[in-house]
Design brief:
The structure is a single chain. This protein is mostly beta strands. The protein folds into 6 domains: 78 residues, Sandwich (Immunoglobulin-like), CATH 2.60.40; 67 residues, Carboxypeptidase-like, regulatory domain (Immunoglobulin-like, Sandwich), CATH 2.60.40; 66 residues, Carboxypeptidase-like, regulatory domain (Immunoglobulin-like, Sandwich); 65 residues, Immunoglobulin-like; 70 residues, Sandwich (Immunoglobulin-like); 277 residues, paralog of FGE (formylglycine-generating enzyme) (Alpha-Beta Complex), CATH 3.90.1580. It has 6 helices and 51 strands. Strands 3-4-1-7 form a 4-stranded mixed sheet. The radius of gyration is 61 Å and the shape is flat.
């Protein structure tokens, strides 16, 4: 039924009445207004919305993944962030693919947060562990005292230790406090934020020691600490302790006490003895032996503590001096001094010798020069004779008062001693024997202008040799070369072989001779004298002590002067100054060599048409063989004709050149020019009459 609108008429302003009349006004709806919807329509809309929501949830449930999120230990609360809607069924969550933030909490554990990634796979599991909160340690001592707290050997500071954080686990607790026994305990820290409180009961590390003395008032000292005066009760730390009672005018009383527990100790009363008086003893000279009443007490200067009120007998004695005896009364409370001058028992010693200006030292004190007589006490003395540049002389001697003594000394110069230590003959690793030569001045190279057979390259010049050197006694043999190079062949001359083992090695170039020298240096552990550059052997600068070829000056010294460099009358030929050579003088071009050479020595036979075994003929005065005859020899120096200004010392020849010097005569030599010791040749390549010998510096 439709309600009919009622019309309402307002009362007139001129009409007054206690009961106004209300007249209804007819209802007129607005233009375009809708009518009220019925409740059934709203229910329809709600049902449709619910169905839509349920459908959406069903779709989410059917498309999500079952994810297990589990914690050890089990968490009190778990949260998963990163989705608009999350469903949890027991321990499992229904999640779509994607990243999520997982958070968890549990009392006593650190809060947990981590990111997980969910994929389209089937059931997925994420297992996590929760970390315990640390525990806290509180340590105090009873009684309270300054103490060091250590856990597992690490110092954590002084007691009391409050709320020190420690991870869960077992620990060794140590407490160290002065005057208390060490404290140790095993502790377990549970963690979970809990506090572990320990009150350590410290045990005293001392005992109470009661001690008295007669007289009283003595100070008790333990380990340099004054614990008080007697009578007293003192706390003495545990261990083996030295107790001392000190009182002026009395001897110090000492005892050893083992304190092993904190139980009180009562020691017997101590009767102190009066202190000894100090007696100071001295003598001149010092270091005299002192005996008191027949008992040895030491050497002067000496301090002795002796009981007062007695007379003592002192005896002073020292070797070389007369003994001295003295008596002394030692009075109370009075220190005493006693000094004596000992009378020496003298003996005369003449120290004689050379050089006369050498210094004489007795007991390390300079007393003068040689060739003087010294009066010395009759006791052992160390006597030395010294001079710069000479080896010192030292001996021990006890002078005899009844008999003068003499010491004869001849100092050896350091150079002479060094030379004496250098052997005159040495042998190389391959058995090659070498003779020592010590130069002693200048020598002359070349020959006089009027000498018969002289060549233009024999300009006379002086050189000085100072360095001692070893030179080969013989020329290098084929056997020695073959030990270095097995393929070597010295060949033949005509029908005469040159390749026998004992014959000198020939057909060897200068470079190959230098290489052989280096090889032998290596065998003996010596530095090389040559180095190879672009296939050419060159001398090392400065020259080493390795094996090398002789310099021209060294060869001349060995061949012409025969070790006597003070004799300036040089020989003309290897055997002397006149022709023909005597029998056995050497292997030259004798009558046996007629088929091999153009010129031979008349009326001379040596039994060898070509080269002879090395060392077969007579040696010179130095014991060297074949410096004249057999084969010529390679020289270290580069070949040069011109002279050198000045007097060179130990010359090694020109620094460069195209050929090397050759010296000496050979089995091919038959003319005067060739036979002379002044003959000089040159070359680089090997020939059938050129060999070599080696030298090296002695130091």
């Amino acid at each position: 039924m439709t309600e009919q609108p009622q019309e309402y008429t307002a009362p007139s302003s001129s009409t007054s009445s206690a009961n106004p009349v209300i007249t209804p006004v007819a209802f007129e709806p607005r233009s375009g207004a809708h009518r009220r919807r019925s409740p059934q329509r709203w229910l329809t809309f709600g049902a449709l919305g619910l169905l839509l929501l349920l459908g959406t949830a069903a779709v989410y449930l059917f498309t999500g993944q079952s994810v297990l999120i589990e914690f050890d230990p089990r968490a009190d609360n778990i949260e998963v962030d990163g989705a608009l809607i999350t469903f949890k069924l027991g321990d499992r969550w229904l999640l779509h693919s994607g990243e999520y933030t997982v958070g968890a909490e549990k009392a006593g554990y650190h809060p947990f947060e981590n990111t997980i990634t969910v994929t389209d796979a089937g059931e997925q599991e994420f297992l996590f562990s929760l970390d315990k909160l640390p525990g806290y340690l509180f340590v105090s001592t009873d009684p309270e005292t300054t103490a060091e707290i250590r856990v597992d050997g690490q110092s954590l500071g002084a007691a009391p230790l409050q709320n020190h954080e420690l991870p869960t686990g077992s620990y060794q607790l140590e407490i160290r406090a002065e005057r208390y026994q060490p404290y140790a305990a095993d502790i377990d820290i549970e963690g979970l934020g809990k506090t572990h409180e320990i009150v350590a009961q410290l045990e005293p590390g001392w005992s109470e020691v009661t001690l008295n003395s007669n007289p009283e008032g003595a100070q008790l000292w333990v380990a340099d600490e004054n614990l008080g005066t007697t009578p007293l009760t003192a706390e003495v730390l545990m261990g083996s302790r030295t107790l001392e009672l000190r009182l002026p005018g009395y001897k110090t009383w000492t005892t050893e006490l083992l304190v092993s527990d904190n139980q009180p100790r009562l020691l017997p009363s101590v009767n102190l003895e009066k202190a000894d008086n100090l007696v100071r003893l001295s003598s001149r000279p010092s270091q005299a032996s002192v005996s008191v009443n027949g008992d040895y007490r030491g050497q002067t200067p000496l301090e002795l503590e002796l009981p007062p009120g007695r007379e003592y007998q002192f005896r002073f004695s020292k070797a070389g001096y007369q003994s001295a005896r003295r008596s002394l009364l030692v009075e109370e409370a009075s220190d005493a001094r006693l000094s004596v001058n000992l009378t020496p028992i003298l003996g005369q010693v003449l120290v004689n010798g050379s050089p006369a200006d050498a210094d004489v030292y007795i007991e390390g004190v300079r007393r003068g020069n040689l060739n003087q007589t010294y009066e010395l006490p009759a006791r052992p003395h160390r006597i030395e004779v010294r001079k710069p540049g000479y080896l010192s002389y030292s001996t021990s001697l006890t002078p005899n008062p009844d008999l003068a003594q003499r010491i004869d000394v001849k100092l050896t110069s350091e150079e002479a001693a060094r030379q004496a230590r250098t052997p005159s003959l040495v042998t190389a690793a391959n058995g090659y024997a070498m003779q020592l030569i010590r130069p002693s001045g200048r020598i002359v190279l070349g020959s006089p202008r009027r000498e018969q057979g002289r060549q233009a390259n024999e300009v006379q010049r002086q050189v000085e040799l100072r360095r001692a050197f070893y030179i080969g006694v013989r020329e290098i043999s084929n056997a020695q070369i073959k030990a270095y190079r097995t393929s070597h062949d010295s060949g033949v001359a005509g029908e005469q072989t040159l390749s026998l083992d004992e014959q000198p090695a020939v057909r060897i170039s200068w470079d190959d001779a230098a290489r052989f020298a280096n090889w032998l240096s290596g065998m003996d552990g010596l530095p090389f004298a040559y180095q190879e550059k672009d296939g050419v052997m060159q001398a090392v600068q400065p020259m080493t002590t390795g094996y090398r070829l002789p310099t021209e000056a060294e060869w001349v010294l060995a061949a012409r002067y025969e070790g006597d460099t003070n004799n300036r009358a040089a020989k003309r030929y290897p055997w002397g100054s006149a022709l023909p050579p005597p029998s056995g003088a050497g292997n030259f071009a004798g009558s046996e060599s007629t088929d091999l050479v153009q010129r031979v020595i008349s009326n001379y036979r040596d039994g060898q048409p070509a080269s002879a075994p090395v060392g077969q003929f007579n040696s010179n005065n130095l014991g060297l063989y074949d410096l004249g005859g057999n084969v010529r020899e390679w020289i270290h120096d580069y070949y040069s004709v011109g002279g050198v200004s000045g007097v060179p010392v130990d010359p090694l020849g020109p620094k460069n050149g195209s050929a090397h010097v050759v010296r000496g005569s050979s089995w091919r030599s038959g003319a005067i020019t060739d036979l002379r010791l002044a003959w000089r040749g040159q070359g680089s390549d090997g020939r059938d009459d050129i060999g070599f010998r080696l030298v090296r510096y002695a130091e």
